[in-house]
Amino acid sequence: MPLAIQALFVALLFSSIASAAIVEHVFHIKNVLVKPLCKEQMIPAVNGSLPGPTINVREGDTLVVNVINNSTYNITIHWHGVFQLKSSWMDGVNMITQCPIQPSNNFTYRFDITGQEGTLLWHAHVLNLRATLHGALIIRPRSRRPYPFPKPYKEVPLIFGQWWNMDVGLLNIRPAPLSDAYLINGLAGDSYSCSKKRMFKLKVVQGKTYLLRIINAALNSHLFFKIANHNVTVVALDAVYTTPYVSDVMILTPGQTVDALLTADQPSGLYYMAISPYTSAHGQPFPAQVTRGLIIYEDTVKSSSSVMPLMPELNDISTAHRFSSNITALVGGPHWTPVPRHVDEKMFITVGFGLEPCPLGTKCPGYLGQLYAGSLNNRSFMYPESTSLQEAYFYNITGIYTDDFPDQPPLKFDYTDFVMRTESDYKMMFPEKRTSVKTLKFNSTVEIVVQNTGIVTTESHPMHLHGFNFYVLGYGFGNYDPIRHARMLNLLNPQMHNTVGVPPGGWVVLRFIANNPGAWMFHCHMDAHLQYGIGMAFIVQNGETSLLSPPSNLPQCTRDPTIYDSPTAKVDFSY
Ligand SMILES: *[C@@H]1O[C@H](CO)[C@@H](O)[C@H](O)[C@H]1NC(C)=O
Ligand SMILES: *[C@@H]1O[C@H](CO)[C@@H](O)[C@H](O)[C@H]1NC(C)=O
Ligand SMILES: *[C@@H]1O[C@H](CO)[C@@H](O)[C@H](O)[C@H]1NC(C)=O
Ligand SMILES: *[C@@H]1O[C@H](CO)[C@@H](O)[C@H](O)[C@H]1NC(C)=O
Ligand SMILES: *[C@@H]1O[C@H](CO)[C@@H](O)[C@H](O)[C@H]1NC(C)=O
Ligand SMILES: *[C@@H]1O[C@H](CO)[C@@H](O)[C@H](O)[C@H]1NC(C)=O
Ligand SMILES: *[C@@H]1O[C@H](CO)[C@@H](O)[C@H](O)[C@H]1NC(C)=O
Ligand SMILES: *[C@@H]1O[C@H](CO)[C@@H](O)[C@H](O)[C@H]1NC(C)=O
Ligand SMILES: *[C@@H]1O[C@H](CO)[C@@H](O)[C@H](O)[C@H]1NC(C)=O
Ligand SMILES: CC(=O)N[C@H]1CO[C@H](CO)[C@@H](O)[C@@H]1O
Ligand SMILES: [Cu+2]
């Protein structure tokens, strides 16, 4: 055989083997000192970096990550948006699919990544820890399969984070303290006094196209993103391809990702990219921090001044809504499946706030002098404490959860009227705290109308479903009308997501097929809201596939006194 052909043969052989590789990584988590602003702060970090390492795989690969916990915190790592087909034990949700990896312990996550391509993220799924424990998870097509858009010249991850000058372990104060900065790839940039030189910079070549892999890893903030004088073309959301959509502004809720093409088509120069928060809540104080990065064209003269994009207002609901609702799926593209027409389970879930009675003899900062509580259909989610939900289900352990999450709110009322207060509002104002789940038959098609409420406040809640993507059949404001709005749903080319921002005082309609057995959370991806109880869980029963036994080394909930009796670990989480 001539050498060239032999080489080609070997290359082909190699690529077919490589089309289902095992990708192995070690995450070494320890406490490190970092200084993104003026003050040094100890944080838990993966391999000492903020954000943590980017994981690159191809669709069809098996990912194996050994997480070694040398920090002082209990940790789990969640692979946000990954379907976890037949590997529900690897979802990494504290007290839902596992007990935490305790300090000085390790656990190896192992799962296949199939049927999805694009940008996702990994993050800790314990209280506030994902503030500093997060990173990109990039899933490229199998070898020799092209992108459904022109091949970019380069790919650039852009990871947005939210920063506090305080111990992340102490962050779960109610209400959540205001953050001190937003970060682009770990850098605060020139709009804060001590980080002027530490700004994310992207050098571009005139005429070339870049694939921006954008991740909102902020703990509690929706973020607008703009680049001065440039449009981008969105090609994927939450690792699902979309029809190309040109825009000069993007909005990402916590947990969402956007893949967008940026062509360097402007005159040589310096152009800022910027992120700023979007807050839809009524009358909430919020710092209008803008964080900038810089795009530098090749051969820009040194003295050039930088162009700044005009950012949307803090509460620009219409810009947010236009971007969120206007993008459609790439029908016929890789991994596209048509919307199922038959629905087995119809749910109507009211989402929002409520109150928890203020303990006698104390002063509480919330509305009407009470504490805040999250509410889904008048239930406020409590995490199990002694064993994980999925182990309780698998081993038939009673007393951990109740299988009674309601399909409807206990009351029909004017959900979104914010002008207080009817008697109905009061009847829904103090939700019941419990661990309630909804059990689904294998392969059932579930439709959920998620109805935001105006109880206490109206606010966009980014609802995240574990284990599945859902179609977003419609978005709207006000109360969902099952006759009028049902006729307007998009069953042809709706976008798919794992996280959707429910418009403030509005609704979305979601549909998914429950074809993966296990316990899967559905919750608000603003961490502060999840802690208030804006969440629930589905249990999908066995069918064509079954929930396997847990891996033998799955972390257990037994408490190791030698670790926790050290003074640094004595953190009071009970407020
Ligand atoms: C993290 O650091 C360890 C060494 O401590 C190294 O072996 C590993 O490859 C690093 N992981 C990643 C994902 O970079
Ligand atoms: C991390 O902890 C493990 C288990 O206790 C230990 O073997 C290892 O030496 C530690 N590594 C570092 C860098 O502290
Ligand atoms: C991981 O934990 C196991 C015990 O579960 C231990 O035997 C092993 O040495 C640990 N590995 C590392 C790299 O710390
Ligand atoms: C961005 O797109 C809009 C409409 O799609 C167009 O009007 C505008 O000129 C474009 N801007 C740039 C800088 O290309
Ligand atoms: C989506 O975009 C089209 C075309 O620009 C526009 O006509 C339509 O009103 C937009 N829809 C929404 C919900 O903003
Ligand atoms: C749990 O209960 C189900 C139904 O009764 C049974 O099929 C299953 O074997 C039980 N599992 C265990 C681990 O006991
Ligand atoms: C909501 O839950 C609370 C607490 O259990 C209960 O008192 C109230 O009656 C419930 N509301 C309705 C409308 O059932
Ligand atoms: C699952 O549902 C689809 C329709 O949504 C159907 O075509 C398929 O046969 C079902 N599979 C099983 C195992 O029930
Ligand atoms: C860490 O996890 C163990 C086991 O679940 C638990 O007993 C302990 O209270 C946790 N520690 C903290 C600080 O949350
Ligand atoms: C917090 C933590 O787990 N610390 C441990 C890291 O590993 C060393 C040994 O390598 C232990 O001495 C620490 O206690
Ligand atoms: Cu929320």
From TrEMBL:
Its main location: secreted. One of its GO terms (cellular component) is apoplast. CDD domains: CuRO_1_LCC_plant, CuRO_2_LCC_plant, CuRO_3_LCC_plant. Its cofactor is Cu cation. Residues 30-143, 155-298, 404-543 form the Plastocyanin-like domain. Binds 4 Cu cations per monomer. InterPro entries: Cu-oxidase-like_N, Cu-oxidase_2nd, Cu-oxidase_C, Cu-oxidase_fam, Cupredoxin, CuRO_1_LCC, CuRO_2_LCC, CuRO_3_LCC. Keywords: Apoplast, Copper, Glycoprotein, Lignin degradation, Metal-binding, Oxidoreductase, Repeat, Secreted, Signal. It is found in: Secreted, Extracellular space, Apoplast. It comes from the Eukaryota. Residues 1-20 form the signal peptide. The keyword Oxidoreductase applies. Its EC number is 1.10.3.2. GO terms for molecular function: copper ion binding; hydroquinone:oxygen oxidoreductase activity. Belongs to the multicopper oxidase family. This is Laccase.
